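thread: overnight batch results

M.L. [08:02]
morning all. the overnight job finished for the chain we discussed friday. pasting input first so we're all looking at the same thing
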Amino acid sequence: MTVKRLRIEFYDDSGCRHTVSLDGPLNREKIARILDYAELMGGLSPLSADRDPNRYARTKFDRVRDLVVHSFRERAFSSDDVRKHYQQLYVEPIPLTTVATYLSRLVDRGLLNRSGSAGRWRYSLGERVPTVPSQ
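M.L. [08:03]
and the structure it wrote out:
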């Protein structure tokens, strides 16, 4: 039998980080108990009908990319602008260094343009921006 590993990290309502690691034979019941604990501690919010069901399945990088494309189409922005908007939208903390790294990767991929100098970068959407479907 192969040993399986599972690590779950989440923040509760007060901002306290919880990390749970399991090593060994795993089954649905064990995983369900961990998820129940996370929900009990306020780390998972139940999905309501008006929310996107894939909202929590995407990576942080995907969320930052989508947030930039949809929320900052018309103006230049800083990494701190993105961090604040991300924390409001997803109700979870994200370090400014993480946002800056993700924005740098988006610049490298041609999705964003960057101007200014280190520590004061301003970003705007580049030429390779995907089109936003009309609602």
